[in-house]
Design brief:
alpha/beta; 2 domains; Aspartate Aminotransferase, domain 1; Rossmann fold
Length: about 375
């Protein structure tokens, strides 16, 4: 039997906790039950009084590309409801947006990485509920890259941004509901919070173990394979290497017109990176970096996802691309997510230590975050909901 997500459980229980409530919903196309019926439609069909719709980065229909593409609200023609953008001039719901609701329902997926902005929309919605005395209801969903593996540095608060507001690890190994519990207690948000737990989900599960359909949460997250490499390969947004946007395999493919893929492949293989093979290729991005230009590149083939270390692998790619092509490699320049001074790579990494120590051996760089990662693992234990 497939895993039941929070919306499936809510539906199974007859939407009992929402009776007589006026609600707002935070949704996008991936907000659907196991039969791919949209959460919004299910609520309306079952007589739940929905008075407002909120949507995150990429829009209500997950139609907007790239991480800097903002959008503004509108009236939904199908339902007549106001749709409020939480990725434009406003990122935290304002009182006037929530005046007609008693509770805010959050039903967005996460892909298991700190930089994926939906969890920071979650944090800001929780803050708004705390400030305005509204209840926050999380409809929990699987971590698609399992709930066990934790990797990468913990965010230094000096580098807080909309790709990392609170000090958590890059690959956090938690569900949205578990993160909400952590945010609420550990970071003292203190909103009235309820989590509708999943049924049948186990921490060891990858998305294809759940029996659930994959609905793209954003334009460049087309498959669970994309999510598998994303906790590392998003780092390339902070460089002039293409992270594969404008191809059919974003984050799995990377490169640049100046990159020698065969030489880089040899060097990466010497690092003995577990669970991955590297295939040289050429590609022409249809948009984003190096649009219309022939790029030398590599596709990462994950051969053993249990052993694969996405963050360490991506760090090796950046380090060696920089060393191989010092005259061509560049760090991206600000702004990035409203940060006008700090380099995008540091904002994404959550620290400037990695960039400043890029001349060291890979294993030595990776050792630099192990102490804080161990402390994070201990902290997260008390917020876990699933065995």
């Amino acid at each position: 039997m497939p895993v039941l997500t929070g919306i499936d459980v809510l539906e199974k229980n007859g939407f009992n906790i929402l009776k007589n409530a006026k609600v707002g919903v935070v949704v996008n196309p991936a907000s659907a039950n196991r039969h791919i019926e949209p959460t919004l439609d299910l609520l309306l069909k079952n007589g739940i009084k929905v008075n407002a719709i909120f949507a995150p980065q990429h829009g209500l229909y997950a139609e907007t590309q790239d991480n800097m593409k903002e959008w503004e609200g509108f009236i939904d023609k199908r339902t007549g409801l106001s749709v409020y953008s939480l990725y434009g001039k406003v990122r935290k719901p304002r009182p006037e947006m929530m005046k007609e609701i008693d509770a805010l329902i959050f039903d967005l997926p996460d892909v298991g990485a700190r930089y994926y902005t939906f969890i920071w929309t979650l944090g800001l919605c929780m803050q708004a509920c705390a400030e305005q005395g509204k209840k926050m209801i999380i409809l929990d969903r699987p971590n698609p890259i399992n709930g066990i593996k934790v990797e990468g540095p913990v965010l230094n608060p000096e580098f807080s941004s909309f790709v990392g507001m609170y000090p958590i690890a890059v690959r956090h190994g938690m569900t949205v509901g578990e993160l909400a519990r952590m945010f609420n207690e550990e970071f003292e948000i203190g909103c009235p919070l309820a989590v509708v737990k999943m049924e049948g989900w186990e921490r060891k599960m990858w998305f294809d173990d759940t029996g659930l359909p994959w609905v793209m949460p954003s334009p460049n997250m087309p498959t669970p394979d994309s999510a598998t490499v994303y906790p590392g390969m998003c780092l390339l947004e902070g460089t002039n290497l293409s992270e594969g946007r404008g191809t059919t395999r974003p984050f799995e493919i990377f490169g640049a017109p100046w990159l020698d893929p065969y030489l880089l492949k040899e060097i990466l293989e010497r690092e003995d990176l577990p669970g991955a093979s590297f295939r040289p290729l050429c590609f022409v991005p249809t948009f984003n970096k190096w649009r219309g230009e022939l790029c030398g590149g590599i596709q990462i083939h994950v051969t053993d996802r249990e052993q694969f270390l996405p963050f360490e692998t991506a760090l090796a790619i950046v380090k060696h691309a920089k060393e191989l092509h010092p005259d061509s490699f560049r760090w991206s320049t600000p702004p990035y997510e409203y940060e006008e001074i700090k380099l995008p790579f540091d904002i994404i990494a959550g620290t400037d230590t990695l960039r400043k120590t890029m001349n060291k051996e890979l294993k030595e760089i990776c050792q630099s975050w192990q102490k804080e990662l161990t402390e994070f693992k201990i902290m997260r234990e008390k917020y876990l909901l699933y065995g």
